[in-house]
């Protein structure tokens, strides 16, 4: 029986291993983590991450061929294939701070593998890492090898949160990079055999190590670039009277461009896009490729611009001040169907509004009050380091309330911001909400999910990203 161990029971490691166990009953899969609370949660009824369909998959296999454990060393030493899926946040200090990936967790995992291994291993990079990380890991392992042979593979994960199970069940492709030696090819084949249990052969792509590592960064950069492109267009649409939804529909019909990932929004978030582009920028700079670095940097700058633009629109339309006004924030997660708030645009929008002294009432169906307070009180770049939590700033606590209901959040509010496209927000009773709000009542739809005409009929002043503006906003623009 092949034994797999995955180090890191997070958003990537957890769902990916659950699906491998589900699809390969003949393989024993152990997911290990240094976080006792995370492992306890994986072994409980309340899994540590919200992901549609995940519960069923875990329930089917847990205790049979899927195990969650804190006995990291035991499971690593017993495994044939070790996936490393630890966090690789952006460095906050030292060389490359703010751009380079922090490989501390990766390095400590690699050293631990070298310490406890008693048989040959295939070590698989699952977390997104800078190109050439595999080489560094290989060096750590071989310099501490004690006669044991290691093969390093890069097998980047392309799942998106909120659709992880579906993405894992029917992936567009599985990418495996390895050394071009006979041993490297054998290792690739061993991993290919795992995926071949459910993924058609023609969807499994094999490349060299560096291509696989770079492809992951490139894919995320291309996806983020599409969003920044359409968001840049949204600003121009508002200025000209064009409708961004009509523009993206027309543009996306060109099969060379394609229709997906062209939704204008308040900005992209998530643990990958910004981090991976910063990483790409850093790699370009290290290689003296300044123009290439600047090209990709612009994707992040447009994203920051979009978030600022949204905040400015709110403040300017509400008579140039939100001081003391209650603003309801509906949605805090970086996208729907997840409770994840890493790099969510909601953090920057809320901070922008708090900077103008607004009072915020926040509701998200999946994000806890603790998480929101933590996100709003932490400095940029600290978010991925829960261990180094800073004390909450008293102003964040005072001006932010987190509630468990959209009606409560919007009661007596001057304005509503939609920051996550949760389906539930489409079917709220907006007449009831309007009746309980201060007038004029504003809605700022940062995800373009609401029926603008209907809301205007009720009496709301509505702003949607990249859509023809209400006369109100044009008047206020002139004022500000
Ligand atoms: C383009 C648009 O494709 C067309 O829809 C529009 O109506 C007019 O402009 P055209 O300029 O005729 O058409 O040719 P196109 O095939 O788009 O190629 C433009 C240039 O891009 C060429 O120099 C081509 O060699 C280059 N190209 C194209 C690449 O370098 N790489 C590619 O992958 C595709
Ligand atoms: C992304 C990649 O899609 C995935 O392949 C990779 O493995 C990890 O990074 P994820 O961050 O989970 O996945 O979610 P994704 O669906 O890509 O959304 C990222 C952000 O872009 C979200 O904030 C989303 O709201 C935003 N977005 C997405 C838009 O603003 N417009 C769009 O058209 C699509
Ligand atoms: P991702 O979104 O990439 O899956 P997460 O932060 O959700 O990232 O998950 C990474 C997990 O890796 C965390 O639960 C963390 O505790 C775990 N981890 C980090 N370093 C180690 C290590 N050396 N050994 C075991 N687990 C680790």
TrEMBL record:
SUPFAM superfamilies: 6-phosphogluconate dehydrogenase C-terminal domain-like, NAD(P)-binding Rossmann-fold domains, UDP-glucose/GDP-mannose dehydrogenase C-terminal domain. Transmembrane segments: none annotated. It catalyses: UDP-alpha-D-glucose + 2 NAD(+) + H2O = UDP-alpha-D-glucuronate + 2 NADH + 3 H(+). GO terms for biological process: glycosaminoglycan biosynthetic process; UDP-glucuronate biosynthetic process. This is UDP-glucose 6-dehydrogenase. NAD(+) binds at residues 8-13, 33, 38, 86-90, 127-128, 161, 272-275, 342. PANTHER family: UDP-GLUCOSE 6-DEHYDROGENASE, UDP-GLUCOSE DEHYDROGENASE/UDP-MANNAC DEHYDROGENASE. The active site is at 272 (nucleophile). One of its GO terms (molecular function) is NAD binding. Residues 328-452 form the UDP-glucose/GDP-mannose dehydrogenase C-terminal domain. NCBIfam families: NDP-sugDHase. Its EC number is 1.1.1.22. It comes from Acer yangbiense. GO terms for cellular component: nucleus. It holds the Pfam family UDPG_MGDP_dh_N.
